[in-house]
Amino acid sequence: MHVRPFLDSDELAVIALWRACGLTRSWNDPRKDIERKRSVRREWFLVGTQDDTVIASIMIGYDGHRGWINYRAVAPGQRLHGHARALMREAERLLADAGCPKINLQIRTSNASVIEFYRSIGYAQDDVVSFGRRLIADE
Predict the structure, then answer these.
(1) 0.90 exceeded by the pTM?
(2) Helix, strand, or coil here: 46?
(3) CB distance 14 to 34 below 8 Å
């Protein structure tokens, strides 16, 4: 897998990947999420390709306090080949180079396989409750 920054021409393939991986929700418009990421550290929106086909993605963020991972996805037929691990190592490298002391991420409690993946690469569950409030509705 080749990891590179997201290109505008990747948009449809990335959205299809997210849908195939069950990451999209009715209240989040994936096109708007991509557009928002284009305006903030665009170079930290990465895709993994194989034979010029998008097979993986990750959005990386840093607010000066914590790093964040969103939309980390690997195509169902490409799993268990180390692609997710490679994306996370690149995200960790970028964040460490930026001086980020810790990475946070959110996983749906029903997604046991993803929880186990993160445990297997050294992540641990924090003793926190995640809250959110939508400021802009995606319609």
Answers:
(1) yes
(2) strand
(3) yes
Hey, CA dihedral for 32, 59, 132, 26, is it positive or negative? positive
Helical ranges in the chain per DSSP H: 11-20, 30-38, 83-97, 112-120
Residue 26: predicted pLDDT: 84
Contacts 24+ apart (CB under 8 A), 12-18: 13/53, 13/54, 14/47, 14/54, 14/57, 17/54, 17/55, 17/56, 17/57, 17/73, 17/75, 18/57, 18/71, 18/73
Confidence band, pLDDT 50/70/90 cuts, at residue 55: very high
Residue pair 74/21 in contact (Cβ under 8 Å)? The answer is yes
Among all chains, which residue has been given the structure tokens 């802009």? 136
| pLDDT, tens only, 8-52 | 999 999 999 999 999 998 888 999 999 999 999 999 999 999 999
CB 69 within 8 A of CB 107: no
Distance CA 74, CA 56 (A): 4
